[in-house]
Amino acid sequence: MIGKLQRPVDFERVLGRQSRARSAHFALHHLSANPAPSAWHAAKLRTAPAELSTGDAQPAHSVVEHDPPRVPSVEVEGCWVGIVVPKRHAKRSVTRQLLKRQIRAAFAERPGMPPGLWVVRLRSPFDRQKFPSAASDALRAAARAELAQLLDRALKPSKPGAPQ
């Protein structure tokens, strides 16, 4: 399953980590975690049943625990992809949409991606002299090839101390 990252909290968590791989135009970040729960889900968990009662509030008795509560380990499920294509690197919306489609297609072609949160970020613009058309086949092919190399590099086991 490939999901779509949409919440700023998830982007901040992933982009706060060092990039896993870089190419001339893209940076790839990864965090082995599930997306944060939605605000609706978190509010539902915080709301106690006594707060919703229209009658008199019942006194709440809680047992004091001396041991810290154990947090159950959460299994990371699915691959969640976020895309950052800023206007300063791709001025025309046609170009931004083309790059976003190529990023989604690159992930869709790789069914064996490790689960977790992935963010692909455009870090430098494509040369306008080399790709004058905003949505040319040449730009599409160049972006797809570079993204394929980026994902291959990210999936290879890295050697300790080797630059990425």
From TrEMBL:
<protein>
    <submittedName>
        <fullName>Ribonuclease P protein component</fullName>
    </submittedName>
</protein>
<keyword id="KW-0378">Hydrolase</keyword>
<dbReference type="GO" id="GO:0008033">
    <property type="term" value="P:tRNA processing"/>
</dbReference>
<dbReference type="InterPro" id="IPR000100">
    <property type="entry name" value="RNase_P"/>
</dbReference>
<keyword id="KW-0540">Nuclease</keyword>
<keyword id="KW-0255">Endonuclease</keyword>
<dbReference type="InterPro" id="IPR020568">
    <property type="entry name" value="Ribosomal_Su5_D2-typ_SF"/>
</dbReference>
<keyword id="KW-0819">tRNA processing</keyword>
<dbReference type="InterPro" id="IPR014721">
    <property type="entry name" value="Ribsml_uS5_D2-typ_fold_subgr"/>
</dbReference>
<dbReference type="Pfam" id="PF00825">
    <property type="entry name" value="Ribonuclease_P"/>
</dbReference>
<dbReference type="GO" id="GO:0004526">
    <property type="term" value="F:ribonuclease P activity"/>
</dbReference>
<keyword id="KW-0694">RNA-binding</keyword>
<dbReference type="GO" id="GO:0000049">
    <property type="term" value="F:tRNA binding"/>
</dbReference>
